[in-house]
Design goal:
Order of helices and strands: EHEEEEEHHHHHHEHHHHHHEEHHHHE
Number of strands: 10
Shape: globular
Strand order of the largest sheet: 7-9-8-10
Length: about 450
C-alpha cells in the first residue's frame, strides 16, 4: 500500500504505536547504504513530519503549500516521492521546479528566505530553475524584492485582460543582461510599479453615480470593443504598463546603451509618458530607436502640454470616446476602439519625420493647436498639415503659420468626424430592442481631455 507524504507518515506511525506501547514518537533515519536492518536506527525524536526536513536544513517546507495563490500563476512547493510501507528503507526523492538534487533545492530555498511575508509568497509563484537561481544571486536583497514584485505584476491574470504568465521568458531575457543593464532595468521596474501606484484613473466628464457608473442613457460601441477597459470603473493602466515594459524587454533587441537611455527616460516620466515611450520603441523599427530616444530627450516632461502625454491618448479607451447631449439634457456616448498598432505606427512615423525635418519647437507649436481635439483624428490632422506644408511652403513662412492653418482646417475635419460619430449613435440606437427617442445631439465632451464644442445634428 502506497501512502502520500503526510497521510503516509500518520498512518504508519499509528500502526507502529499500536504494537509499541509507551514509546516516544520516533522516525527512522538512514545513516549508511548497507542493506541491513542493523544499519537503520530509531534516533530522531519528535513529530514524524520532521523526517521530511532533514534534507532541507530543518526548513519547514510545508509553508510552500499555503492556500494563498496568485491567479494565473502556479505556486511551487517541494514534492516528494510517496512512502511505500513495504519498502520502508528506500530513500525518498524530491522535486522543486526543475530541481531534484537536495543541494540545488537548498540553494534555491536560500533565495526564498531572503524575502519576507507577501514577497516570499510571490516568489514561490516563480518556477525554480537554474536560470532563476543564477539570476537572483546577482541581486541585492532590495533588488530581489523589486524583481519579485514586478515579475508577479507582469504575469498574474487580470480581469478584462488576456495577458499570460511570461515569467520564464522574462527571466531568460534578464539573464542575458550585463550587470549595468540589470541594475538599470531593476531600478526602472521599481519606478514603473510606483508610477502605476501613483496613477489616478480618469473620471467621466458627465459624472458618475454612487456605484461608479457613468450617468449616460446609452453607449454606442462596436461589438469587438473591450467593454471592461472602456469602462471608467476599470483601472488597468498600471498593469498594462508593467506588461508592456516586460514585453519590450523580451521582444526588442536593444543595445546596452539604448536600454540604459530608455530606462533613464522612463524613470523621469509619469505613467502616460512612459506608456508612450514604450509603445513607440516597441512598434517602430530597430534602426529608429536612436531617433525616438533623441526626440524623447527634447520633450519637456514637466509641461502640461507635451508630446508624450499627447500620444498616450492613442491607447486610452476613455480618450477614444465622445459624449453628446440630447434635447432633454441627458447624455449618450460613442465609444471607439483604441488606435490599431499599424495606425499608431503610422502616426509615430509622421511625427518622427516632422522632428527630423522641422524640429521639436515646431511640433510643440502644432500640439498647442491639436490638443483637445478628438483622439481619433490626430493622424489625419498631422498628415493633412504636413501635406499642405509640403505642397504650399509659402504659407508656412511665418511664426503663426501653424495657428493660421489650424483656424482654417481643424473645424472642418472635426465637424466631419462628429457627424460620423453621431450617425454611429443613431444607427446603434435604431438596432436596440427599445430605442431611445433621439431627435438632436449636441457634442458635449471628449472622454479624457474634456474639451467641449457646440456641434449639433
Amino acid at each position: 500500500m502506497k501512502l502520500s507524504n503526510t497521510a503516509g507518515f500518520s498512518q504508519l506511525t499509528d500502526q507502529i504505536k499500536q504494537h509499541r506501547p509507551n514509546t516516544p514518537p520516533t522516525a527512522t533515519v538512514k545513516v549508511n547504504e548497507a542493506d541491513s536492518m542493523r544499519n537503520y536506527i530509531i534516533a530522531k525524536e519528535g513529530p514524524e513530519s520532521e523526517l521530511l526536513l532533514n534534507s532541507f536544513k530543518g526548513r519547514n517546507t510545508a509553508t510552500t503549500y499555503s492556500p494563498h495563490h496568485i491567479v494565473g500563476m502556479k505556486k511551487y512547493g517541494i514534492a516528494s516521492s510517496p512512502l511505500d510501507i513495504n519498502k520502508p528503507f528506500v530513500e525518498q526523492t524530491y522535486r522543486y521546479g526543475e530541481f531534484t538534487n537536495p543541494d540545488d533545492i537548498n540553494a534555491f530555498l536560500d533565495q526564498v528566505e531572503r524575502l519576507d511575508g507577501e514577497l516570499q509568497t510571490m516568489f514561490q509563484h516563480l518556477k525554480p530553475t537554474s536560470e532563476l537561481l543564477d539570476l537572483t544571486k546577482k541581486m541585492s536583497d532590495e533588488e530581489l524584492a523589486i524583481f519579485t514584485e514586478f515579475m508577479v505584476a507582469s504575469s498574474r491574470h487580470y480581469i478584462g485582460m488576456d495577458n499570460k504568465n511570461i515569467s520564464e521568458q522574462l527571466i531568460s531575457s534578464l539573464s542575458k543582461q550585463s550587470a549595468d543593464e540589470l541594475s538599470s532595468t531593476l531600478e526602472t521596474m521599481s519606478t514603473l510599479v510606483q508610477q502605476g501606484n501613483d496613477y489616478t484613473k480618469p473620471i467621466s466628464p458627465v459624472g458618475e453615480n454612487k456605484h461608479g457608473h457613468e450617468i449616460v442613457e446609452m453607449i454606442s460601441k462596436p461589438d469587438n470593443v473591450n467593454w471592461f477597459k472602456s469602462n471608467y470603473g476599470s483601472n488597468l493602466a498600471k498593469y498594462e504598463l508593467v506588461i508592456d515594459y516586460a514585453n519590450l524587454l523580451m521582444n526588442k533587441n536593444l543595445s546596452e546603451d539604448q536600454l540604459i537611455q530608455l530606462n533613464s527616460h522612463l524613470s523621469q516620466s509619469n505613467l502616460e509618458q512612459s506608456s508612450s515611450i514604450i509603445d513607440m520603441v516597441s512598434l517602430l523599427k530597430a534602426h529608429q530607436t536612436d531617433e525616438v530616444l533623441a526626440m524623447v530627450s527634447e520633450v519637456d516632461k514637466d509641461s502640461e502640454l507635451n508630446l508624450l502625454s499627447y500620444l498616450a491618448q492613442q491607447t486610452n479607451y476613455q480618450a477614444n470616446k465622445q459624449y453628446y447631449q440630447m434635447d432633454n439634457g441627458k447624455f449618450v456616448a460613442q465609444q471607439d476602439n483604441i488606435s490599431s498598432d499599424s495606425n499608431r505606427r503610422e502616426l509615430y512615423n509622421t511625427i518622427l519625420n516632422a522632428y527630423d525635418t522641422i524640429g521639436m519647437g515646431w511640433i510643440n507649436d502644432t500640439l498647442e493647436q491639436f490638443t483637445g481635439t478628438p483622439t481619433q483624428i490626430q493622424s489625419e490632422l498631422w498628415q493633412t498639415l504636413l501635406n499642405d506644408k509640403e505642397s504650399m511652403p509659402e504659407q508656412f513662412n511665418h511664426s503663426n503659420s501653424v495657428q493660421v492653418w489650424a483656424q482654417n482646417n481643424i473645424s472642418q475635419i472635426e465637424g466631419q468626424f462628429h457627424s460620423k460619430q453621431m450617425n454611429k449613435i443613431f444607427e446603434y440606437n435604431s438596432q436596440r430592442l427599445v430605442p431611445d427617442l433621439i431627435d438632436k445631439l449636441t457634442f458635449f465632451s471628449n472622454g479624457h481631455n474634456h474639451k467641449s464644442a457646440n456641434i449639433t445634428k
